[in-house]
Amino acid sequence: MRLLATEPASIAKILDASIKLYSACFSRLWGILSILAVLYIAMGLLTATLQPDPAAPQTAALELLSENLSLILAFVMVFSLVSFVLYAALIYRLDNVTNEREDSFSEAITAGFRAFPSMFFAAFLYMVAIILGYILLLIPGLIVTLSLMFYLYFIVIDGLGGYRALRASHSLVWGHWWRTATIFTVPMVIWMAVLFALGFLMAFLAPADNQVLMQILMNLLSVFFMPYFFALGYVQFHDLKLRKSGSDLASRLGR
Q1: Contact indicator for 9, 177 with CB cutoff of 8 Å
Q2: How many Cβ atoms from other residues are within 10 Å of residue 120's Cβ?
Q3: Number of Cβ atoms within 10 Å of the Cβ of 57
Q4: pLDDT tens digits for 2-32?
Q5: Cβ(198)–Cβ(221) under 8 Å?
Q6: Taking the CB of residue 194, how many other CB atoms lie within 10 A of it?
């Protein structure tokens, strides 16, 4: 079954292809998603543990934070390392499913470790660029956020380094920013509406002392829905490449 188009597609076809890719690869992502689920459960439990008593003075929250600072930093480091490796492994498996290549879980994790240094460096530059963009104004921040987001795919699929991947992502999206924004906004709005509805329902049904459990359940739901956005990014990554190659060909023929 062909999952990707051979020529630039409409927004509706891209969304349809992303759903098909998500369905085709989901059964091969259980190992990756299970580890991510454990991470998110740990994050929820850590957040609950560090939650100060609402009746306590404001200084109590700062004291609790300072007392557990080493624990928080250790968790952030482990979370960053494991999540980056798993995200890269997820993209690796998406690419293999699309191109009908067989792989194993260990191969995907190995690919994730290989991509980690470049991904970590690119993520650091990405966050710096986003922060600077939002400091300037909201609009530059939004432009940078979207235009650089495909660096993950360039690192995992094309083997680029961190800085080159960010530049390649910017070049890829340039000229198609609004179209790309529309493609991601449609499912994001739907997902946010689902989360809002679930959050409202849980807050209404669950007692106050069960809110932590409800938050963990919502985090788990997010983990297992997350591959769809990676699949959507993969399809849009491919479509933008087709559009750029077509633009380059048209410009050369016009000379």
Answers
A1: no
A2: 14
A3: 10
A4: 678 888 889 999 999 999 999 988 888 888 9
A5: yes
A6: 12
